[in-house]
Design goal:
Length: 429
């Protein structure tokens, strides 16, 4: 059973929403255009511009129809500045408020001790953001809290929604599959989903995970991510390769993502010695860098040196979304040997540039790479299967126009209308 103080609003002595929210002057209800408070600890900001791009891509498009404000809390504890002396990318300072594409992005701080007391992060998240959320309820008048990821975001948002007396929606994005293995996290995720009016899952596998926790299927919807086919369109291969100083006829693999263990760059590197013998001149482009999840750059560089692959592997570094089409257009095959995913937008981005995908059978990967003509899905952890799939993909003649057509059929425009209708329904029922 949850401690009573988690359901009781801060600053109140009783149950339900606090006095200030109750006293807010009434706004005229617009059932067709409910106002949203988008709530996520993973959102692009000035210090981490590539964090949570998939959330921004989705919700800023919703914001063309439904008014919204973004609350993107940042973890804090008193001595984190000392840690940055040894780990420069650790929790970089973030401004309290930003504006992106005309939307306000608020970054309140909440207490979070690195590596400790994670079972308290959801409650501390709610307490830390409570003053801002109470003010935004009064000034902006949001009707729905729309949280992304079930823990700690959905759990904290669930407490805030209860205190403020508004509906809650939660989008499951993939971390839940790992977290539910921990009993304490499973309990909190189940509690968060139980408080939600509607739960959006970016893949069918995540929907089934929620159903397996006992969540009513009537509350569950699959709302997959999409792709911006205007931004991700192929450039002429010769031009793309020239801009990266790549040989015109070399076979080229590419991966895009944070340089962290989960994404599996090291698993691909382990395949390269054998692949290079079969495909002379092979090049592997690694696009990405450090993220809030970690940074394996040093480990990966050491692996490359140990295997003698300095002339094969290229650390391209992180790129802005509008520049990703250059390495994608230069490559022959996209690969991501990932340990866990919800719905990997980068697969559709690669496909929009005409690339087949080789990936692992985890999360929603098989739902994106849904047919053989789009690529190959192999069992996670099967090194030989991954190497063989990459060899076949480099040897095969792909129908790249068909791959692009599949990506266009999964554009954002096909997703947002359905999501907007669901949010309006949450507000009107």
């Amino acid at each position: 059973m949850k401690p009573r103080h988690e359901d009781q609003a801060p600053g109140t002595g009783g149950r339900g929403a606090p006095g200030p929210a109750r006293q807010t002057p009434a706004r005229q209800t617009d059932t067709a255009h409910p106002r949203l408070a988008v709530f996520s600890t993973l959102f692009p900001n000035a210090a981490e511009p590539n964090a949570g791009l998939f959330i921004r891509e989705r919700m800023f498009r919703v914001g063309r129809t439904l008014p919204l404000v973004v609350v993107a809390p940042v973890p804090w504890f008193p001595f984190q500045g000392l840690i940055r002396r040894f780990r420069p990318h650790f929790r970089p300072p973030v401004p309290r408020i930003e504006h992106q594409n005309g939307f306000a992005i608020h970054h309140p701080r909440f207490l979070s001790v690195p590596g400790l007391f994670k079972s308290l992060d959801g409650l501390l998240l709610a307490l830390g953001t409570w003053p801002l959320m109470k003010r935004l309820k009064r000034e902006f008048g949001f009707d729905i809290i729309d949280a992304h990821f079930a823990y700690p975001d959905g759990y904290g948002a669930g407490l805030l929604a209860r205190w403020l007396g508004v509906p809650l929606t939660i989008t499951l994005r993939g971390t839940e599959a790992r977290l539910v293995r921990e009993p304490w996290a499973r309990r909190r995720i189940t509690a968060a989903l139980g408080r939600a009016t509607r739960i959006f899952a970016v893949s069918g596998s995540l929907l089934e995970l929620a159903a397996g926790l006992g969540i009513a299927r009537s509350k569950l919807r699959v709302m997959a991510n999409g792709v911006d086919t205007a931004k991700f369109t192929p450039e002429p291969r010769a031009r793309a390769r020239s801009s990266l100083s790549l040989p015109g006829e070399a076979p080229v693999l590419v991966s895009v993502g944070a340089l962290v263990e989960r994404k599996g760059f090291h698993r691909v590197i382990d395949c390269l010695p054998a692949l290079r013998r079969r495909f002379p001149g092979l090049q592997y482009l690694m696009v990405g860098g450090a993220s809030p999840e970690g940074d394996m750059t040093g480990v990966l560089r050491e692996q490359v040196q140990r295997l003698g692959l300095e002339d094969t592997v290229r650390f391209v570094g992180p790129l802005a979304p509008e520049r990703l089409r250059i390495p994608l257009s230069a490559a022959d095959v996209f690969v991501l040997a990932t340990r866990n995913e919800g719905w990997a937008n980068v697969f559709l981005e690669a496909m929009a540039c005409g690339l087949p995908v080789v990936t692992t059978d985890v999360g929603g990967n098989r739902e994106v790479v849904a047919r053989d003509e789009l690529g190959t899905v192999v069992e996670f952890g099967d090194h030989q299967a991954l190497c063989d799939a990459l060899a076949r993909a480099l040897s095969r003649q792909w129908d790249r126009q068909a791959i692009q057509a599949y990506a266009r059929a999964n554009s954002w425009e096909t997703r947002i209308d359905a999501l907007t209708r669901e949010l309006v329904a949450v507000h009107t029922t």
